[in-house]
Amino acid sequence: MSNKITKTDAEWRSQLTPEQYRIAREKGTERAFTGKYHNSHEPGLYRCVCCGNPLFDSDAKFDSGTGWPSFSVPAAPDSVATEQDNSLSTTDRDPQDSATASIPRCSRSRRRRHSQPA
């Protein structure tokens, strides 16, 4: 994605629910095994709740045992960027939507089936 989306915090807050804002914009998370999509097996695309960018295809989803949806590859090579996270005792690479720099965990994404218009 080459077109970054820039909005003020007030604009993001007016577009998103409080939970979506906390997770997507403030790098929050939901408790393991509680997210809407952690056990979903429906075919389709996972899209960014901020901009609708396709992030992950359900064909790339697998059960990592962590309680959060896991994906082997993004929907497109440039749709997801990563950021190094050193906040815990290990170093992780957190995925981010390339267009909004939002964290695209599944509660941050809305699900659409392939048969629905994008």
Tell me about this structure:
- The chain has 118 residues and is an alpha+beta fold.
- The chain has one domain (9-112): Metal Binding Protein, Guanine Nucleotide Exchange Factor, Chain A (Beta Complex).
- Helices cover 14% and strands 24% of the residues.
- The chain contains two helices and seven strands.
- The strands form three sheets. It has a three-stranded antiparallel β-sheet with strand order 2-1-7, with no helix packed on it. It has a two-stranded antiparallel ribbon with strand order 3-4. It has a two-stranded antiparallel sheet with strand order 5-6.
- The longest helix is centred in the N-terminal third of the chain and has 9 residues, at 18-26.
- The radius of gyration is 14 Å and the shape is globular.
- It starts with 8 loop residues before the first helix and ends in a 6-residue tail after the last strand.
